[in-house]
Specification:
This protein has 247 residues and is α/β, with parallel strands linked by helices. It has a single domain (4-241), classed as 3-Layer(aba) Sandwich (Rossmann fold). It has nine helices and seven strands; from the N terminus they run H-H-H-E-H-E-H-E-E-H-E-H-H-H-E-E. The protein has helices spanning 4-8, 12-33, 37-47, 66-72, 88-100, 139-149, 167-189, 195-204, 209-218, and strands at 56-60, 80-85, 107-111, 124-130, 150-161, 221-229, 234-241. It has a seven-stranded mixed sheet, sandwiched between helices. The radius of gyration is 17 Å and the shape is globular. It binds S-adenosylmethionine (SAM). S-adenosylmethionine is lined by residues 12, 15-16, 19, 30, 61-63, 66-67, 85-87, 90, 113-115, 130-132, 135-136.
């Protein structure tokens, strides 16, 4: 049995097993626990990424593929979307979803660790991640790998949970996030890893908005913009790879 403390060290194998244990209910719980806001957050991340209809997009930590799907909606027939995840149960569900929605031709998903992406440098106009980078064992190395595969002038987009700033809203939200959400998550997922207790703990242990911006800048990303959504529950960071930066 992997403890919460062990999970928070974010050893890849533990994280992979935890997501494998909740994969089958992951989409359902996303909808319930976010009150269906998750879809609009991903849509917003696509909107602020500056993507053009002919773009090549890479969505890492893609899970069941929802951000990759949101990107595919704004591309034309010249565009391509790829998704990757190191949890095979998630990748299998993404593949089923794409087939069901007739999107298997437009989006390719694969097993891959975000720390070692099987692509050449400077390949994608946008490299994105939603609710994934927080779980990667080495945050800076994960962002650097995303930046590596992004073309010069392209964007790295990170959608992640963040901490609301309004003190009144924050106390109400934290009661839900720390006390109620883990109970609902446990009840429905029956995950032995307590994945939905790990969720608030990992968010509270994650760098704040400016901390994440600094990490992106330390990976060579410029003009990092920060967009808070839904009273700061989530934030989208968009950074640009220098036009002259080739790795
Ligand atoms: C919270 S889910 C997010 C899924 C999806 N992006 C979404 O918007 O719902 C996090 C995903 O990140 C994946 N993940 C965590 N660390 C990873 C790593 N180092 N490499 C690849 N995938 C990773 C997990 O397997 C899981 O599917």
């Amino acid at each position: 049995m992997i403890t919460q403390t062990e999970l928070l060290t974010k050893k890849g194998e533990h994280i992979r097993q935890m997501f494998g244990s909740i994969a089958r209910v992951y989409d359902l719980l996303n909808t319930i626990l976010s009150f269906n806001f998750d879809k609009s957050w991903r849509k917003f991340a696509v909107k602020v990424s500056g993507v053009t209809p002919d773009a090549r997009i890479m969505d890492v930590c893609t899970g069941t593929g929802d951000l990759a799907i949101a990107y595919s909606r704004v591309l034309d027939s010249r565009g391509r979307v790829f998704g990757s995840d190191f949890c095979h149960e998630m990748v299998k569900l993404a593949v089923h979803k794409l087939i069901k929605r007739n999107l298997a031709g437009a989006i390719k998903v694969m097993d891959a660790d975000t720390l070692h992406l099987p692509f050449r440098a400077n390949t994608f106009q946008v490299t994105s991640v939603a609710f994934g980078i927080r779980n990667v064992s080495d945050l800076k190395a994960g962002i650097a790998e995303m930046a590596r595969i992004t073309e010069p002038g392209g964007r790295v987009v990170i959608l992640e949970f963040s901490q609301p700033t309004n003190p009144v809203f924050k106390s109400i939200y934290y009661y839900y996030f720390k006390k109620i959400l883990p109970c609902i998550g446990k009840l429905i997922s029956r995950s032995k890893f307590n994945a939905y207790s790990y969720l608030p703990s990992s968010v509270l242990n994650f760098p704040d908005r400016n901390g994440l911006k600094a990490q992106m800048e330390s990976c060579g990303l410029q003009d990092v913009k920060i967009y808070a959504r839904t009273l700061g529950i989530v934030t989208v960071h968009v950074g640009r790879k220098l036009s002259t930066q080739t790795t």
